[in-house]
Amino acid sequence: MSDTVIVLSGGLSHERDVSLRSGRRVTQALQDLGVTVLEHDVDPHLITLLREHEGAVVLPLLHGEAGEDGSLREVLDLLEVPYVGSSGAACRVAFDKSIATRVVAEAGIRTPVQVALPHEIFRELGAAALVRALGQRIGFPMMVKPSRSGSALGCTRVDEASQLPGAMVAAYAYGSVAVVEEFVTGTEVAVGVVERSGGPEALPVVEIRPESGTYDYTARYTAGETRFLCPAELSEESARACAEMALRVHEVLGLAHLSRTDIIVDEQGVPVFLETNVAPGLTATSTVPIALESAGLGFGEVLLELVDLARRRHRT
Q1: 21-30 burial by CB neighbour count: b if 16+ within 10 A, else e?
Q2: CA-derived radius of gyration, the chain
Q3: What is the pLDDT of residues 272-284, one digit of tens each?
Q4: What crossing angle do the helices spanning 299-315 and 16-31 adopt, rounded to 10°?
Q5: Are 63 and 13 in contact (CB under 8 A)?
Q6: Mean pLDDT, range 67-75, rounded to an integer
Q7: Burial category of 203 from C-beta neighbours within 10 Å (exposed 0-12, middle 13-18, buried 19 and up)
Q8: How far is CA 228 from CA 20, 37, 95, 208, 248, in A?
Q9: Cβ neighbours of residue 150 under 8 Å, at least 6 residues apart?
Q10: Which end of the chain has less neighbouring CB within 10 Å, N or C?
Q11: Which pLDDT tens digit goes with each residue over 200-231?
């Protein structure tokens, strides 16, 4: 059985650069612990590489559709290659906000009011009528975002009806379905869940304070653009509720090894689910590494634990 780890990063999504940065950081952390690591992109040579290193564990760090919609993991299952993370089926559900939000809500977890609109419906039925209906159902302000995208790409806060058509166009640039949901005012936090020998554990809650007021792509991945507070400046009760929500979402969506749930803590201190991520960023400005450090856990050591879990899952 090979002890090699194959870090997959890059891909062709809009988040390629973030994925490459995550890949470099993970590769360095594992190499510092003496692990043999091969860093590779998704290309025609990948299957050959996997066959040449039979038994190597794959650590997928691809973001965006191809990396998080489950398709790559289905291929790894087909090739009987062990990998870190959730199954293809679980990824498909978690990645699509229009589906994940409904599944989570049905489990009794608080979510924003949300409407999913395919591009064809929005175009054929006419923007004017739908804008009126959305305003009546959801109210302003509201958030518009692609159903299947990450890193806040294509997301827009809409404060009045005249802004809604443009926001829909921006969301459709990243996919065929947009979700429109109520804007929840409060404190934005992220909670990572890491599976260890004793089962899933919630990491310390990370509070997100973007300098611009909006946690967009620039705020996420530009050093100094966002302040991260860990542990978050929340009441003990609210922090515990956020941790419990992240663990429950991890369970309800059938996720494995590693996930990150994004939450808004409203003005009454109650957490509201926003979305979850099956391949959270692991860059220097990503929340999971910040939370690991706050918990006193070594980044490379935790990655090694996840690799071991992937090997054990594969054997069984």
Answers
A1: bbbbbbbebb
A2: 19
A3: 999 999 999 999 8
A4: 90
A5: yes
A6: 91
A7: buried
A8: 22, 30, 24, 5, 24
A9: 15, 63, 64, 68, 277
A10: C
A11: 999 999 999 977 666 655 656 566 778 999 99
